[in-house]
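Reopening this one. Same input as before:
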Amino acid sequence: MTRWGSRYTRFARRTRMTAVGTATLAVLIVTLTACDSGGSDATPVRAPGPDFEVFMDTSATRDEVDAVRQLLHRSEAVTKVRYVSREEAYRKFSRWFEKDQPDLVANTQPAELPESFNVTVSGGLKQVAARVKRLPGVDMVLKVPSSRPFCRRLAAATRDMSRADRAELTGMTRCLIH
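Same output, byte for byte:
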C-alpha cells in the first residue's frame, strides 16, 4: 500500500514540477522578449513585437497545433502570426542562459520546451486570446507586457551608478535586455 502511495506521490510531484516549470519558462520567455537594446549604451525600449503569445502543451498533437494556427490565420483581428518551434525556442533559451546557467542548458532538451505562436492583433486582443485559450492543446496564452516603463526605470536607475556597479547589474540582468 505505501509502495503504491509513494510511487503515486513521486509521479504527482514530478507532474506538478513539470507544469510549474513550463509555466515559469513561458513567463520568462515573454519577459525576455519584452526589452530590446539598440546598442551597448542605448536606452532599452520595447521592440515592435507580438501582443500575446500562445504556448502549446508539450504533449500537444500536430492536429492541435494546426487547429491553433488555422484559427489565428482566419481571425480578421490578427495581423501577424509567427510560429516558434521547439528547436527555435531551445536556441533562444540556450543563447539566454549559456553563460550564466550552463547546467540548466545542458540538462534541458528541445522536447521539454513548448511550441508557441507570437500573435499581433489590430484590436480585440481579449476576444482572440479567449478563443485560442479554449482550444485543446493550448497550455497558456500570455499577453506580452509593455516593457517601455520598466526599461525606462531600469535605464534611469543605472544612469547614476558607478561603472563597476552597472557592469554587475548588467551581468545579473543580461537575460532581460538582450
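So the earlier flakiness isn't reproducible anymore. For the record, The CA atoms of residues 161 and 168 lie 10 Å apart.
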